[in-house]
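ARCHIVE CARD
SHELF: 3
SLOT: left
DATA:
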Amino acid sequence: MPTPPADWYPDPQQPARLRYWDGAQWTGYLVDPDKPGVVRYENPPWAPSARGINVPLSIAVTSAF
């Protein structure tokens, strides 16, 4: 079965908006129905975060002086 060509298709997560399919995978480019002329980028929920794991970090600093 051939894959669909690159184009805008209903978002698999929220079909009311459009997400760009690049011919091989879904991208983070979206168009919301209330702003049809505005393309925005949002990391797809299934993609790994570019920043790694989002965990609060605490560091204790002590001095020997």
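SLOT: right
DATA:
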Amino acid sequence: MADQRGRPRVLFLCTGNSCRSQMAEGWARSLLDSDIDACSAGVDPNKLNTLAVKVMDEAGIDISAHESKAIDACEPDTIDLVVTVCGHADETCPTFPGKTTIVHRPFDDPPKLAADAKSEDEALPIYRRVRDEIKSFVEGLPALLREHGLQQ
């Protein structure tokens, strides 16, 4: 169900909507704003991860005003494609109305991988790696949308 500008609506879904899904939304809005209408949400919303904000800012994308939100904030009845970016979101993904396509593309969890980091400087490379992996995925979204018949 495309938005008013004819763009397919894409939801990036994670557990807390604090890190990976927020980075994906940031990349999508930055790289593909004319092609898709992006939103992110969590099955159990938490607070925005400050290191995710920092590494996105390093890449020139400001997500500092983003807020962690539940699925309802993204108008689930209008979503064309849901991308679950973690295993928990994939396992607990709700049923969406209509012909919503759901794709699972898991990314490592930076907060979990960096839990034993002794400093921010030690944690940041993990966040940067995942940020860059998410960017690569988002760059391929137009092809994925065409593959599922959601975009010309």
